[in-house]
């Protein structure tokens, strides 16, 4: 067991796995940063005010700025919320409930970080083949339009 020089013990940091409440703003940022595309539902005192799908464009921690949801884009300020409640929906779907008093912005990811990363990482050899094929098709189209070379 570790003790500091003052003799007081340190409590371990919380460990949450799929369920729990997150109040630390840094932890909230980390949770929301890689969500990607989500289905969202905005409720006020159990009344659904809005719902749709969108893409998380930015997650930030700025006390004076708003959280914005418009045009299928979400700009989330963790200071807009008191906490995030982590849950699992039926079918093991992750659910993030961003809560502020009697308001809840529920986010259900439509992609996972693993799927998002896979789509971002195109193999360089595959990319080279795609570019070569596109250039070849472009040259063929130019030759067809100009007629035979003299």
Description:
The protein is an alpha+beta fold and about 150 residues long. The chain folds into two domains: about 20-110; about 110-150. The protein has three helices and eight strands. It has an eight-stranded mixed beta sheet. A hairpin with a 2-residue loop joins strand 2 and strand 3 (about 45-60). The longest helix is centred in the C-terminal third of the chain and has 23 residues, at about 125-145. The radius of gyration is 24 Å and the shape is elongated. The N and C termini lie far apart (about 85 Å).
List keywords for this structure.
150 residues, alpha+beta, 2 domains, eight-stranded mixed sheet, elongated
Give the topology.
Layout lengths: L19 E3 L2 H8 L4 E8 L2 E14 L7 E3 L2 E5 L5 E7 L3 E8 L2 E7 L3 H8 L3 H23 L4
Parallel strand pairs: 3-5
Antiparallel strand pairs: 1-6, 2-3, 2-8, 4-5, 6-7, 7-8
Question: Counting H and I runs of at least 4 residues, what is the number of helices?
Answer: 3
> How many structurally independent domains?
2
- Strand content bin: 35-45%
| Average pLDDT, all residues | 82
**Which structural class fits the helix and strand makeup?**
alpha+beta
The level of helicity is 25-40%
Low-confidence stretches: 1-5
Query: What is the total tally of β strands?
Result: 8
Within the largest sheet, what's the order of strands? 1-6-7-8-2-3-5-4
Distance between the termini: 86 Å
């Amino acid at each position: 067991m570790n003790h500091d020089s003052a003799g007081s013990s340190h409590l371990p940091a919380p460990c949450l796995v799929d369920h729990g409440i997150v109040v630390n703003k840094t932890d909230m940022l980390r949770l929301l940063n890689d969500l990607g595309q989500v289905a969202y539902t905005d409720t006020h005192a159990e009344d659904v005010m809005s719902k749709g799908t969108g893409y998380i464009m930015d997650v930030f921690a700025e006390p004076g700025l708003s959280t914005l949801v418009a045009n299928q884009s979400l700009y989330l300020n963790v200071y807009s919320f008191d906490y995030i409640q982590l849950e699992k929906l039926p079918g093991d779907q992750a659910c993030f409930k961003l809560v502020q008093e009697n308001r809840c912005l529920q986010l259900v990811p439509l992609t996972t970080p693993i799927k998002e990363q896979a789509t971002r990482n195109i193999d360089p050899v595959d990319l080279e083949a795609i570019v070569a094929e596109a250039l070849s098709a472009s040259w063929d189209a130019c030759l067809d339009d100009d007629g035979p070379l003299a």
